[in-house]
Amino acid sequence: MQSLLDKFISGKKNNSWLEYIAVITGIASVWFSRIENILVYPVGLVNTIIYVFLSSQVHLYGEASVNLYYTIVSIYGWVLWERRDQHHDTVLKITFSGRKEVLTQLAFFAAFYVVVFSILTYLKTSFSPGAIPWADAFATATAFTGMWLMARKKVESWYWWIATNIASIPLYFSKQFVVTSVYYLILLVMAVMGLIEWRKRAIARRYSPQP
C-alpha cells in the first residue's frame, strides 16, 4: 500500500497542465455523450489531440493510436449525430445491437487486438522496451470498438468503454500519469451511468409508438 502511495505522489509531480486540460475535457465529453449532447465531439477532440501527444511521450503507442482514431471517428460521429430529417429531428437514434452486429463487434475487436499487439510487440523488441503490448493492445482494441459504436449510437458502446477504462487505470498508473489514472476511474463510473441511461432510452424507444 505504501508503495502505491509513493508512486502516486511521485507521479503526481510529473503532471502537466496539458494533462489536466485533457482530463477535464475528457470527463466533460463523456458527460455530454451520456445525455446525448452533440458537444461530446468538439469537447472530445481537445481531449484526444492532447492524449495523442502525451501517450507518444511515454511509449504508449497503442493509446496514442487510439486517440488519433478517436479524433478521426469523432468527426465521423459529429456528422452522423447532426443529421436531421424533414421535421428537424435527429436521424440517428440510440438502439441495441442485433446478434449479427454483436458478432461483427467481437470480430472488429479481435482483429484490432491482434494487429495492435503484433505492432507493439515488435516496437517493444526493437525500439521501445517500456511498451506493454498485451495491456496497451487490449485498451486500444476495446476503445476502437467503443468509439465506433458510440458514433452509431449503440448501447453496447458503453460495455466496451467500461472494459477500456478498467484496462487503462493500471496502464497509465504504471507510467506515472496518476491524474490520468484517476481520470479513467472517474470515466469508469460515468460509463456505468451512461450504460444505464442509454439502455433506458433504447428501451423507451423500442416500446414507444413509432411515427
Q: Which properties best describe this structure?
A:
mainly alpha; globular; 8 helices
Summarize, please.
The chain is mostly helical and 211 residues long. It has eight helices and no strands.
Task: Give a written overview of the molecule.
With 211 residues, the protein is mainly α. 77% of the residues lie in helices and 0% in strands. The model has no long low-confidence stretch (mean pLDDT 84).
Largest sheet: none
Helix-strand category: mainly alpha
Share of β-strand residues = under 5%
Total strands: 0
What value does the Rg take, in angstroms? Answer: 18 Å
N-to-C order of helices and strands: HHHHHHHH
Could you tell me how far the N terminus lies from the C terminus, measured between alpha carbons in angstroms?
A: 58 Å
Q: What percent of the residues sit in helical stretches (DSSP H or I)?
A: over 70%
Apparent shape = globular
- Low-confidence spans: none
- Overall pLDDT metric: 84
Counting H and I runs of at least 4 residues, what is the number of helices?
8
Number of domains: 1
Topology:
Layout: H1 2-12, H2 17-34, H3 40-57, H4 61-82, H5 99-126, H6 133-151, H7 157-174, H8 178-206
